[in-house]
Write a structure and sequence with these properties.
Layout: H1 2-18, E1 30-32, E2 38-40, E3 48-54, H2 63-74, E4 79-85, H3 97-108, E5 113-114, H4 127-135, E6 151-154, E7 160-164, H5 170-180
Length: 181
């Protein structure tokens, strides 16, 4: 009986110590803004988020305009867009963070939050994108980001609701955003 109790205790402790932590939230993550300052995503608690990997020299770059329009339209209703430049797709974001910020401001009047250039796939991918891809897979269940301007919609509680490919315009997502506001 003694050994059975000890065995049960060892099994329980092992399962407790090595169980996957399912309590992780998007709000536990930290990123760097376009100026290099660390930002906790907990700052966005209570807001609907549209998280987008962006690029300045891409066929989808004109989506900045639609993103900014959505942001201006709903920013006072607890909506925020988070732009994450990435140079992983055909070197379409070669500039420095400063150059990217200037391009976005001067070309599209971007006022939504922009962040430092990151990798969204691979060995050096940012933990935010690891989390997003685990929460919402792409077409046919794939996880990798296929191109620039992939979008993740996150509700006010930090739950990843949906993932949209590059060809899905910001305007096409507006109805989904409205349901969450």
């Amino acid at each position: 009986m003694f050994f059975k109790t000890i065995f049960s205790l060892v099994i329980f402790l092992s399962l407790s110590l090595f169980a996957k932590d399912n309590t992780m939230s998007i709000y536990d993550l930290k990123v760097k803004d376009i100026k290099g300052q660390e930002v906790s995503l907990s700052k966005y608690k209570g807001k609907v988020l549209l998280i987008v990997n962006v690029a300045s020299k891409c066929g989808f770059t004109s989506q900045y305009e639609g993103l900014e329009n959505l942001y201006q339209k709903y920013k006072n209703k607890d909506f925020m867009i988070l732009g994450f430049p990435s140079n992983q797709f055909a070197n379409q974001e070669p500039g420095t963070n400063k150059e990217i910020a200037e391009f976005c401001r001067l070309t599209f009047g971007v006022d939504f939050d922009m962040f430092a250039k990151i990798d969204v796939n691979g060995e050096n991918e940012d933990p935010l994108y690891t989390y997003l891809k685990e929460e919402a897979s792409g077409i046919l269940g794939t996880e990798s980001i296929k191109w620039n301007f992939t979008k993740f919609l996150v509700d006010k509680n930090g739950k990843v609701i949906d993932r949209f490919g590059s060809a899905t315009t910001p305007e096409a997502i507006e109805e989904d955003i409205l349901k969450l506001l």
